[in-house]
């Protein structure tokens, strides 16, 4: 048996659809914890509104936010997986079909950066990055739609032999530039090292880590704690209303590289849209948070 074109087409379209209608459980729990510890009355009310909106979206099967962004997929191909057909074409065709059938309809967010023309189709859309999973006999698909709030304020800079303090100062510089325009409380991903493109990929993947999970690297675990305290001390608060909750989590990862060290930072807005599933050769789907 092999993973089929139709299986990929159906699952990837579903992942994008699911991500628009439901906030991940760890994110809802993070918002609940934030509401318990938040001291600013206005911020408390905003957090309550966020949780209520998330619940109503689930109950009514509606989008949590009208800005559905554009579909971004990370695909991990198991080295022992067997498949047939064109995986990239299946992802593209799944998105095209979803555009025609999804209710409520999607807004035209796919933008040509040369002409600013907007529509549903475009070069390299959906955006897909690829990786290999050693020994796995499945293909894993992760969808993380990127909208204005979660995408606009990502940044990267390359340093020469930076200290940890240098890296943290740069993260905070990017946080201050974003202010509250990325729809906080946010999840912050930080990628350190590798090459320019690798650092950005690491930062993006870091945002998939469950909120509240421990970083296995002690140096990074301590950095995450320091950065989360510093980000929340900025006082931007939920949706810029002020308060103690500008970020729900800071997740940092790294790769070895040359003496030059790229540092990339990206954000997920408070909805923290992300869905992930594994597609097996027998057609079964294993959903993951």
How would you describe the overall organization of this protein?
This protein has eight helices and eleven strands. A five-stranded mixed beta sheet has the order 4-1-5-10-11, with helices on one face. Strands 6-9-7-8 form a four-stranded mixed beta sheet. The protein has a two-stranded antiparallel sheet with strand order 2-3. Strand 2 and strand 3 form a beta hairpin. It is globular, with a radius of gyration of 19 Å.
Rg estimate, integer Å? 19 Å
Question: So what's the overall shape?
Answer: globular
Structural class: alpha+beta
Largest sheet: 5 strands, mixed
Strand order within the widest sheet? 4-1-5-10-11
Write down the secondary-structure element order. Answer: HHHEHEEEEHEHEHHEEEE
Count of beta strands:
11
Helix coverage percent of residues? 25-40%
Q: Hey, roughly how much beta strand do the residues contain?
A: 15-25%
End-to-end distance, in Å? Answer: 27 Å
On the 0-100 scale, what is the average pLDDT?
A: 96
Residue stretches low in confidence (pLDDT < 50, at least 5 long) are none
Number of helical segments? 8
Features:
289 residues; alpha+beta; five-stranded mixed sheet; 8 helices
